[in-house]
Amino acid sequence: MTFDEFWDRRRIRLSPMLAVLFFCAAPDRAQISEGPQEPVIQSSSAAQEVIASTAPSPFTGPVFPSPYELVRGPAALPPAAPKVPWYPESLEFEIKWGIISAGWSNLKVQEVVDFAGQSAYHLVSEAQSNKFCDTFYKVRDINESWIHTGNLNSLGYSKKLREGSFFRDEWVTFDYSKSIFTSHKIDRDGTVTPSSGPIPGSVQDMLSSIYFLRPRELKVGDEVILDVNTKSNWPLVVKVIRKENVRVPAGKFSTVLVEPAVRKEGIFIQKGRKLEVWLSDDERHIPVLMRVDVFFGHVSAYLKKIN
After folding, report:
1. pTM (two decimals)
2. Is residue 228 domain-resident?
3. Once rounded to an integer, what is the mean pLDDT over residues 178-187?
4. pLDDT tens digits for 14-30?
5. Is 163 a domain residue?
6. Which residues contact 83 (CB under 8 A, 6 or more apart)?
7. Is residue 246 assigned to a domain?
8. HSE-up of 42 (CA within 13 Å, CB side)?
9. Cα 79–81–82 angle (5° rounding)?
10. Exposed, middle or buried, 8 (CB in 10 Å: 0-12/13-18/19+)?
11. Of the candidates 66, 58, 44, which has an alpha carbon nearest to the alpha carbon of residue 170?
């Protein structure tokens, strides 16, 4: 058995929760003339590589519009939108497996778009292994999410995961007027599996959960419960553990440690494994350090740069 097969059988997802660590080029979109134009996120080489490896395939069954089809172009941030501490923002992380440098990841919120007539923040997370890790476990992940600028509910998400022999292309959109989600999953051979189902009300996805949590007051001992949908509905329980001082490449930070209890497979973590996130102890609650247990040791994301 190769190392790649050994790793994949344990289904350890390396992309950040920065998905979050929790790691696109969308098709051309019509421009919106109303209001100032926001900066558009440019695809990295990792994004281009992932997208180039995805071949569209015809299929029979229900046809649901993808998030990219629902995005009509850049939009102005509505004056009534509540202030958030993370727009615009770009965070860069170094990924390590124990003390071994494994790659990099980022989290970006750099544009507001028109998503099916609704103003939405466009969140993007990428992860890429370095040349050393590429030799035995190559990672090229892109996660995206679109969240309403008013209530910060998720409007939909997309993930393109390439981790060793693991392959996943999937997107989900949420229709709150009908209380349903719709989804397409694309397998490596191009087989497309559509699905849909009910949602209980306002929901988050794995990537949007971070941004929904960050504006909240986080007191030691508190538990925050979020309704999450990843093609099934489940509660994400975030426990606020303690305050700590943490040093990372970006500097020294006063932080608050939170532990999300992930009950489903998510970005950066397989269900049941321990995830710890250190957030800056200020109104921005910047992810400074993220750590997840894996089958041997742990994988961590260290904040390198804030843009």
Report:
1. 0.80
2. no
3. 95
4. 443 333 333 222 222 22
5. yes
6. none
7. no
8. 2
9. 125
10. middle
11. 66
Residue range 120-142, pLDDT digits in tens: 999 999 999 999 999 999 999 99
- For residue 284, count CB atoms less than 10 angstroms from its CB and return exposed for 0-12, middle for 13-18, buried for 19 or more: middle
- Beta-bridge mates of residue 97: 100, 299
Query: H or E element: which one contains 207?
Result: helix 206-213
Looking at the predicted structure, is the pLDDT value of residue 40 above 60? no
- Check: CB of residue 295 under 8 Å from CB of residue 273: no
DSSP 209: H
- Nearest residue to 26 (alpha-carbon basis) of 76, 87, 73: 73
Residue 165 forms part of a structural domain: yes
Task: Identify which of 119, 128, 62 has the alpha carbon closest to the alpha carbon of residue 92.
Answer: 128
Residue 91's domain spans which residues?
3-217
Assess contact for 29 and 283: CB atoms under 8 A.
no
Q: How far apart are CA 293 and CA 307, in angstroms?
A: 28
CA 140: distance to chain centroid?
14
pLDDT for position 264:
52
CA distance 265 to 273: 10
Domain count, the chain: 1
Is the alpha carbon torsion for 139, 286, 262, 299 positive or negative? positive
Distance CA 176, CA 4 (A): 41
